[in-house]
Amino acid sequence: MSNFFAVVKDRFKISRKVAEAYFVALMLLVAAFPDVIFKGASLRLTDQITAAFTGVPLKPFYPIPNTTGWWAGYNDNGGATYQSEPMIQFMTNSVRDGDSPYWNPYSTAGALGPEALVDQKFSAMTLANAFLGGGSLTYNIVILIGLFFGVFFIYRIVREVFGLSAVAAFASSTFYLLNGYITANLGSNVTQSYLYVPLCLYGALLFVSKISVARWSVAVLAFALFFTCTFMPTTITSLIVIGCITIGYMLNCVTTKQYSMRTGLIAMSLLGLALISSFVLLAPLYFPFLENLKSLGTLDDYSKRHFWPLSFPNAIPSFFSSSHLFESYNGAEPSAAMFNNSGSFTGNTVFHSGVIAIALASCVLSKRLGQFRWLIGISLGVTALVLVRLFDPVWIQLLFAQLPIIGNIGSQYWWPVIMFFLTFMIGFGIHNLQERNARILPWLALLTLGVGTLMWCYSAFGLQEPHLEYKISALTLLALASALMLSLLLFSKYIGSGAALRGVCTGVVMLMFIELMLMGKMIRFQRNDLFANLPPALQFVKQNIGVSRTLNFGQRGLYPELGSAFQIQEVSTMNQGGLPEFRDFFYSVINLEGRQRLGYHPTTPLGSFPSLILIQDTPEKNIINWQAMNFLGVKYVLLPLTYTAYEADLKSRGFKEVYQSLETRVMENMDVLPRAFAISTDGLAEKNNPVLPADYAKHVVPVSIDSYHNARVKLSGSTDKESLIVLSDTWHSNWSAKLNGKKVPIVKVDNVFRGVVVPAGDFKIKMTYRPKSLPWALGASVLMIMLLLYLCICRKRMNAKIDSWLVKAS
């Protein structure tokens, strides 16, 4: 192997450690995802769900034990299937058609674009997919490349920056790739930022170790890549990790006399400036968001969210394993998910680390404190604080209630902090083992805690069906792994040569790989492409709907945000781009029973988003204002075939069944109104903010929609008197209109929708959407690019000035 790296070094002119990083990243990816690389399996969640319903075959490579099916190892399916993956296709369509992505007409009655944040329209992963043409194969390639470079930079941080052994870097890389947080959420919007943290951290640490213009510019670009991930909870918690590790590394540099505290503070200040500069570079994303912050109600929405703590002590065993007395994630049986009346989904909020990984991380506490004591101390302290936060005792509630922004981050989003700190602690733990410098008491304490809480769970929950044999096997493996690590720690000081100890540690890392693979329980389906292969019912709808809308019941058919991918307008949503005025309208015309509202809780009685995804076949328990649906232009209602009560209810209201597939029934609304219409202003009390009269439907005159794009709509028609032209799309102040070539105001109709007052005669209306801040944003971004280019050209001269200034400063 040494000869191999020597050849690579000479041939490609890269250092041995960089060659190692490439090799380990490639090896781990091939070992972890052979089903995807060699057998055509898919990492995309829509591929998994579509395959499960349509009979596409599973493509396992390893015989991974699994009790409940392909979904057992997943946690957050919805973030991908209902938000980020449809938005990848939306952006693909926008790039292909040359449409603006700043307005999404297919969600609700029109929603904001990248300002929605959670669907990550402008993330690096989304844009890479969009510009490469989309598709399932592209998606898998892009995410594998992201994982590859994540592992690559983790290895380089441990090996180059921290100066630890190849085995230590290999261990950290393995855990980064296969811990429960990333495996259970892989492909979801919550983990996109996870892929870019290693690059950001590597860039930040290199800059702190030596201040230079080039390294500062690299840090700006790395942070910009990271901040394209706009799912803010995990982006914020990941940023906390980057900040804490960088500060810890800087303090270590100071204590080892590499430079003075003043120089360290200068480095951190310049790194903060790099972070701000990355935001300026991303101004076309963040300026429109800040512009619309109030109108979106995003901060208010987050402030109302309820923090679901973990249940003590029955959540603790799931830190060690995803399978013991009960399973974690989507494999958890209902009795385990809520046992002991905890009110906490212990399986769905605890991401496993594995017995071996926790044991190795416990070795970070050494007999002799090394040069990285500040970094290790900060890592342990912050990890302990976050763990306590997850269980949410009263005193920590009071503390976090005072903290802006991070005080309202949900428990499931704090896991990047834990997993990244563990990633590096595992590397330091291996280092201490190799140096015969590890303490055994921390592992004994953690092992005692795990065994004690497992025994408590046994007394409360028992060892019971379902899947009793599987649970016994899982407990056996848990015991064997614990015994193995205890033996290694006890006898590590007696293992002879350094080579022998290195070999044992390498073997332990390989066993950690196997343990994490088994606990991940990933069985994936063959790659397929829902977005390129419309289901039959949706083919019928797309061919016949025109610019009308659909109303979808349940999780099949045209589930929320799928319309954004297929360019079919759908009334409900699972996004934050929908405007508060439309949400109020939606809830006023669709009143669901509490348990049928997505995200229902006493603190959020209306639910999280306007959605019918949980609606049951109980028309007697729900109230839907069908006249309002007529106004919205709802031409088709999509029902699961099993919803026979709603089928009968709709037929009694004059709906007609026009299509039926194996799983979806399409009902046509025979009373639907045109999406755009004219109504005389004679009956309107107020022209600037008109309210339509109760009998408006009897007097509407259809208006032609000549062109309908994301951010451009053209209407035309003729009236014999002054009239209000109504388009049943959401109003926003960034929409502008021209009537027969002259700019006119767009008025709010019923406080929600768009209208233009026209005089008698022929008219042509052109509506255009553009964020007011966009020209400024583009200018700021271009200026930042020019600055980075200037710094690159003048780097030698500026580095000399910086070095001289730093000498004087210290």
From TrEMBL:
Transmembrane helix keyword on record: yes
Record key words, sorted: Membrane, Transmembrane, Transmembrane helix
InterPro entries: Uncharacterised_YfhO (IPR018580)
UniProt cross-references to Pfam families, sorted A to Z: YfhO (PF09586)
Domain of life of the native organism: Bacteria
Chain segments annotated as transmembrane: 20-38, 130-155, 161-182, 218-251, 263-287, 345-365, 372-391, 413-433, 440-461, 473-492, 499-519, 774-793
Keyword Membrane assigned: yes
Protein name: YfhO family protein
Species: Pseudomonas atacamensis
